[in-house]
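G., the chain you wanted modeled:
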Amino acid sequence: MLVLGACGTDGSSGGAESDASHGNPDSGPVGVPGEGDSQGPGGDPSDTAGEVIAGSGEGDSQGPGGDPSDTAGGAIAGPGDGDFVIAPPYIPAPETLPNDQVPVGVLSDFTMDSADSLVFPVDVATGQPFNRAVSVYVPSQYVAGTAAPFMVVQDGITFFAGTMVPVLDNLIAAGELPAMVAIFVEPGPDGGTPDGERSFEYDSVSEAYVNFVEQELLPRVEAETGVQLTDDPEGRGAMGGSSGGAAAFTMGWHRPDSFRRILTISGSFCDLQPNTAHPAGAWEYHDHLIAETVLQPLRVTLLVSENDLNWNSDESTRRDWEAANRAMAAALAAKGYAYRFVFAEGADHVDWNVLQTTLPDTLRWLWQGYPAS
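Predicted structure as tokens:
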């Protein structure tokens, strides 16, 4: 049974430290959720899956006038901001299933040669050029010559396209999302460690990756597909899991004039890519950057799991994914951001079952305020 309840942001939890099978922070969706408190805080064992148990202190988990018996829309009903807890079993939301009663979007594929890039010309680990795969979803409702809202999805083909495409088809057809394009883009080679090109692109706190997106990826998408992408930052989003989640936040952080809707799943807000300007890497976001920087016009979703990664056998490494995401939520709340933090009990790093349960409602929340199709 899924439940929703208040979740603290003080960094405390009952989460277990990751075992050796979670050694790669960016190995993608892993595992089956373990056992959790199926009722959640104050839960009633007679409640059905997906019901709202309690709102968070930051917002109304049922939305204005919400009905706590309303199970539509998956784990998290309504537009509430703030901190939430969900628990297993995690059942895919119906919107994740293909529906032959709705119009189906089109996927177009192409490859980018890094030798043509001014931002990331070679793999930092090998010094060699590489190919980057891109797949672009265009909804059937797109009108040629109009400027489409869109999301850039890190690790998109590998991690998210299979689940996200039917969700977009269903929610766009229902008028719950705009007729938006999804750009599923792969990183450079992983290498399985922070020494690889993928971590260099995604985990570095700098403008490099968003510059690549703006200057090289988006123009290529328009040239390949004939779609016009909006310049309105309110119509531009970014998402990803693990290091891809950190990249999505960095895109918005450095270019809020270009990207404002940010979705992170087990985001790597940890010390993986120290540089001269940011010696603690993405850990610095929640450590001081958010607090010390003027409020940015961002809308941010953070999802982290009870059994997420933790490399902090030496605490000075600052590589505890749950603690980092809790601290991100606390920092965003203190500064006054529009944010939603979801803690998934009994789940793992970038947990595929949790993603399938929560993605439709997360996208509804993320795109609030933008005209639907």
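The two ends are 32 Å apart (CA to CA).

Shout if anything looks off.
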